[in-house]
Fold:
Amino acid sequence: MYDVEEIRHDFPILDRRIGENRLVYLDNAATSQKPRQVIQALTDYYEHRNANIHRGVHRLAEEATAAYEEARQKVARFLGAPDARDLVFTRGTTESINLVTYAWGRRFLREGDELVLTEAEHHSNLVPWQLAAQATGAKLRFIPILEDGMLDLDEAEHLIGPKTRLVGCIHASNVLATINSVERLAELAHENGALMLVDGAQSAPHLPVDVEALGCDFFACSGLKMLGPTGVGVLWGRSEILEEMDPFLGGGEMIREVHLDRSTWNVLPYKFEAGTMNVAQAVGLGAAVDYLDGLGMENVREHERHLGEYAYGRLSEIEGITLYGPKRDRMGLVSFSLPDVHPHDLSQLLDEEGVAIRSGHHCAQPLMRRLGVAATARASFYLYNTEQEADMLVEALARAREFFGAFSGAKP
Amino acid sequence: MMRELYTQVIMDHYKRPRNRGALEDADLKEHLLNPLCGDEVTVYAALDGDRIADVKFDGRGCSISQASASMMTEQLIGKSREAAEAEISHFKAMMIGEEEFPEMNDLTALKGVIQYPSRIKCATLAWTAFQQGLEGRK
Structure:
């Protein structure tokens, strides 16, 4: 196991003060902070190797291309992808999923086909499919969640059938802190001749991921939530499926031969990488997975499992609090609500003490409706957070509640 | 700093909201959702010719959005349509710092919200709903 106090020194922003208080950053599910090693990789790239990739034959172009392709190799290894050519750089999970809904969905979906998603999807794995369904006449169906937030797998067996063309599911929930059995869904999908897409935005930063072991056909994740820069993410896909898909964006680099009236496409993964990519950010993501590999993803998971359960335990002691999601085998985040302080007010009051949490619908409005709330508060931990910070959250909550309670009047 | 935002006046309107509830047979009814946070408000008005005879609001949201909605009902009841439209425009301009807050008014309590850009939408939610309701009736 790594030493948390030791690695905190790698994250310059953790020394920041908010007013008089030291920052307690608990909004990691939105974006993680970046270690010096990643920031340095970006600076090094711009100071020493910056050039457009795959174009020039000069030294810088060669070095920039090598750095970009090395990052691809690193991320592929990190996700257990057997061949880095099946790993496409994108702007993030949202773009990765849109790539599939356009390049696969609009090509292969027909009227009457069914897409099976879940009630707990982030908007990024819901709205692109709504658009694809509108364009093709395919139908969306949804696997319900049980009371503790876990997927209703019995119902999934009924929903996934011969009309199903694709099953899409978040690997881990940014609200419920659940880890979904995507392996089982992949089996069900494949038994019915459908494909399996896993939205790994909330899993790749926190759990060991092996796309082969998951048995999925597509896996998407984002750099910004796993120590990497904004503006970069990846889509991994099975090569035979990527091969038969249409391109997504057209332009430079994704072509082989261009005539005035037609073009042919480049090989994988370049067929899906039109125009100049976010090269420095990809290099930064390479440095981020180096850092994660250095700690060991098993260790990261163990640290966060402990912290998630610790925070859940401490929070559950608060009178009247509602906690969402299962008690055990949670991700390192907790969504909650208090009866007397709205999540928005709560995060404002916590911010005064330097504690950064998220409030709102967490880009999962249908799930909020299912839970019967407009918004929740959410504290999400990462590999550098401590038990002490969870304690500070709980203490700040008590003070926020006291502050609100001090005003006279009826409850809203 | 916290006290600049959560004043006694705001908390009073939040915990003892004025004119809260639905209005039967409303002449104006408008629902608005803040997509940022999921908060929602429905505003109702009874019109008597050109005069706004009654205003009510319903919904769920943070202290700022609910208190501001409560203040709005008090501000608009009895006003002519034209005066209400001007009042709303003035309020929204105040909330982005383009016009001055009045000296002596409950609304002055919302001045502190300007320092928190993410909360301005909370304060203007009910007002925007009412504005859209009036426009819809033109």
Observations:
- Helices of chain B lie at 2-5, 8-15, 63-76, 81-95, 117-136.
- The first helix of chain B runs from residue 2 to 5.
- Strands of chain B lie at 28-33, 40-48, 51-60.
